[in-house]
Structures are given as C-alpha cells and as structure tokens.
Amino acid sequence: MELTEIHTLPVTQQRTWDALNDTEILRACIPGCESIAPDGENAYLVALSAAVGPVKARFKGRMQLTDIDAPNAYNIVFEGQGGAAGFAKGNARVTLEPDGDAATKLTYTASAQVGGKLAQIGSRLVDGAARKIAGEFFKRFGAQIAVEGGSAAPVDGDEAAAAQTGTEPNDASAAGSGADTDADATKRKRSWTAWISKS
C-alpha cells in the first residue's frame, strides 16, 4: 500500500510542527487511538482500535521518528500487531513548508505492508480504509490547530467536528472556551519534544 497526500493547514509552519509533536493532540486526532506513550528516544508505543472492511481489531505497535529536521520534516517508522487480525508495518515521510504568511502545506508519503487477515481482504479495502483514517485524522487535526487561532490545546473528536462546522460543542468546558489557565494547558500538553529533551 502506498499513499501520498497534500494538506494545507491554516496556521504557521512552527505551530503545525509543534502540534505534530504533541502526543495529546495526536491521540485526540488519530481515529480509534487509545494511547501514545514514550518508549525510548524519539520512539512511542501506540494502542488503537481500527476496522478494515470486515476485520476489526485492537492494534498495539511502536512508532520511531528518524531523520528529524525541525520544523521541516521527519520520517516515521511503524509496526503494529493486531492479534488474529494480522500485522502492519511501514514508514512515512512528512514534510512541511510555508504557504503564505499564516498557512502551511503538509505533504506525506506513506508505504505499508499488511499480513494475516488484513492481507486476505484485498488491497482495495486496505487502501480505502487507510485513506478514510488519514482523511479523518486531518479533518480533526485541522480543527484542533485552528481553535483559538491555532491554539495547541487539544479537544476531543466531537469538539473538533464542532470547530470544523462552526457549531458549539456540548461540553461547556471544552478547550478554547477560555476557562483553561496557562498552567492547566502546560500540564495537559505532553509533547514529543519534551520527552526527547528528558531522554
């Protein structure tokens, strides 16, 4: 499977880079993601649930960042096991470049291999599921970083959808309401950069 897409995001390149390196924002934006935890230098353990055609499973895997060129690009190497559903492994190249004064063009190229039941259902279903997951991620991610003019405060999927459509989320304490203090935002944020600096 190979996937290449370009997305324009309504915030600066540095803001986009910071958000891409914030594990709380990524956890809120990746469909089905349950957790992202550090596992050594520039590496993370990820748990998520996903459905590919008739195959539904909970995947546990590891993600490693390589060739980091902040705030321009990095490579992601990943592998995951879904029990009886099979496995997936691959890599992705993510690049950022400014698009005017207040927007960023994000380009990524990903390739992956799948095995087990996932390989048996056919490449068309696998590719379709991957594109759907990627599309949902960027819809949520765009809404996340656009809140409060590019605030990196994470919001959940419903709030991201509300920000995308311009409607108000049901939770009055939603991120972006102005009720959070700087200390709360700092405590909530768990950026990859912070983890890297500790290692």
Provide structural commentary.
There is one protein chain. The protein is of the alpha+beta class and 199 residues long. It has a single domain (2-193), classed as START domain (Alpha-D-Glucose-1,6-Bisphosphate, Chain A, domain 4), CATH 3.30.530. Helix content is 33%, strand content 36%. The chain contains seven helices and seven strands; from the N terminus they run βααββββββααααα. The protein has helices at residues 13-20, 23-29, 117-120, 123-146, 157-165, 182-188, 192-198; strands spanning 2-9, 33-38, 43-52, 55-69, 73-81, 87-98, 104-115. A seven-stranded antiparallel β-sheet has the order 1-7-6-5-4-3-2. A hairpin with a 4-residue loop joins strand 2 (33-38) and strand 3 (43-52). The relative contact order is 0.20. Mean pLDDT is 80; it is low at 150-155 and 157-199.
> Whole-Å distance between the termini?
34 Å
Q: Please mark out the parts with pLDDT under 50 across 5 or more consecutive residues, or reply none.
A: 150-155, 157-199
Question: Fraction of residues in helices?
Answer: 25-40%
Structural class: alpha+beta
CATH fold category name: Alpha-D-Glucose-1,6-Bisphosphate, Chain A, domain 4
List keywords for this structure.
single chain, 199 residues, alpha+beta, Alpha-D-Glucose-1,6-Bisphosphate, Chain A, domain 4, seven-stranded antiparallel β-sheet, 7 strands, disordered C terminus
Topology:
Layout: E1 2-9, H1 13-20, H2 23-29, E2 33-38, E3 43-52, E4 55-69, E5 73-81, E6 87-98, E7 104-115, H3 117-120, H4 123-146, H5 157-165, H6 182-188, H7 192-198
Helix pairs in contact: 2-4, 4-5
